């Protein structure tokens, strides 16, 4: 149980918090307002990611409703960050090319994020009261995977076109982090279907959670690299 908790919760949470600390620290040293706002959002995202590992469930119904409300608002905040970042990335492209036709795509993704918000609330609010429906879980994983997957792909495409070296590296790692979370959702969906009789408590405190934890570590490490890329530190070569 100790190994499962360490891999699935402690290590990802520690990496996310370290990334948030780095983002808040370097934010004061960044010159442009755009970079400071980006660092601020990355720091907030790191804190929220670390909080996810702590807020799992509670036997108190009122506390559990609060946790459900947190998860419901979480995905809206994450996608709002992505939606405000894509136009900035596009302006850093000399050709001002559209990123995956984002102007049209964002409408569907906002609807998807709204569905994800509702599904996550139902999932966390009613799962422990015995009113959980497997259909809610399927909708949750599909909505989360599509929202994070498309957003991550858009960030990577925009990063490749951008001429801003700071944003390009940071957004590439942020896109990889979102795509890694898609793998986390996929692993959770597969394991929940293979192990339908396993409770959430039994899952997160057993060796079944090790694949989930490994992917969560990959996702949070990519988030840390995204914040670290805001202030690249290259090795200084000394000329004789």
Structure notes:
The chain is mainly α. The chain has a single domain, classed as Rhopdopsin 7-helix transmembrane proteins (Up-down Bundle). It has helices spanning 2-27, 33-54, 61-91, 102-126, 134-161, 165-194, 200-204, 210-228. It starts with a helix and ends in a 12-residue tail after the last helix. Residues 234-240 have low confidence and may be disordered.
Structural class: mainly alpha
Query: Would you list the SSEs in sequence order as H and E?
Result: HHHHHHHH
Oligomeric category: single chain
CATH topology: Rhopdopsin 7-helix transmembrane proteins
Number of domains: 1
Secondary structure: elements and pairs:
Blueprint: H1 2-27, H2 33-54, H3 61-91, H4 102-126, H5 134-161, H6 165-194, H7 200-204, H8 210-228
Helix pairs in contact: 1-2, 1-8, 2-3, 2-8, 3-4, 3-5, 4-5, 5-6, 6-8
Brief sketch in words of this structure:
This protein is mainly alpha-helical.
Task: Give keywords.
240 residues; mainly alpha; globular; 8 helices; disordered C terminus; Rhopdopsin 7-helix transmembrane proteins; single chain
